[in-house]
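Exercise 7.
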Amino acid sequence: MERRKNGKMGRFKVDLELANYADVHLAQAGLLDPVKVRRVRIPGVVDSGATRLVLPKSVVAQLGLPSAGKVGVRYADQRTSIRNKVKDVWLKLLGREGTFTAMVEPKRKDALIGAIVMEDLDLVIDCTTQKLHPRDPRWVISEV
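Solution. The predicted structure, written as tokens, is:
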């Protein structure tokens, strides 16, 4: 896919729900009151040029997500850095849900949704309409 003049490929906003997967699991098992699940709804930017899920540090703290070490990062402008990584991020987008690791970005205000999330949830980008759609609305299709 060719990059636009602003250096961004397909980028647009969506709303998503995030939670601490350990809390979700405990609530599903009846061991935690569902209202006590740490969750948040935040805007996210779908970026066809990004790989991972990226979360604001404030959201990571609010959800109490556990550390998963460090990850090397290369930004679109070619800068590099080392960032913290967290695990057990429960994410719901367009009625589909999954559990992911995420990179933590200290000054970010919204989530960044990269290819790993879109691939796992079987969502495709329509760059013409700037929308995200399920490849098949009935279920996730896995290629084997």
